[in-house]
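Annex B.
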Amino acid sequence: MIAAAERMIRPHRVGDRLFADVGATLVSAAGNQYSGVCIDTGSGTGFCAEHSAIAAMVTAGEYQITTIVAVWRSETGDLHVLPPCGRCREFIRQIDPANLDTEIVLGRHRSAPLRDLLPEHEWPEALDPPRRSADTVTPADPGATVGLV
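CMP/dCMP-type deaminase domain-containing protein: predicted structure tokens.
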């Protein structure tokens, strides 16, 4: 998979922006492989290589990811496996609940499930019980009229 992601790298500079210097490859639960590259644009409108690969998968009608990897080659020629940024981790999770078990490649001989990289993924419980005020309509009394004398 690392080699497949590496083949996607095709750096292209436009002004001060660099496109396709990071490549990503994923394997879907159906065993299909999808790849993509990063696109660095101004005003936060670009996206990571993982987003691109996931978009290709979703376009094909798939949503579950078994394994995913992103790589970058430095100016000195060294290849690096990049862990997904926080935005990518959350994106992977939101595509399908089963993706918490996606294996994230972190090196040639190292990986971890997404759930270990994104441990606090559940919506938090309320700290205090709901408060009811005299001016609040609650589901318990949907016909109540507020503020009328």
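Residues 49-59 form the longest helix (11 residues). The domain at 2-117 is CATH 3.40.140.10 (Cytidine Deaminase; domain 2). Further annotation is deferred to the next reporting cycle.
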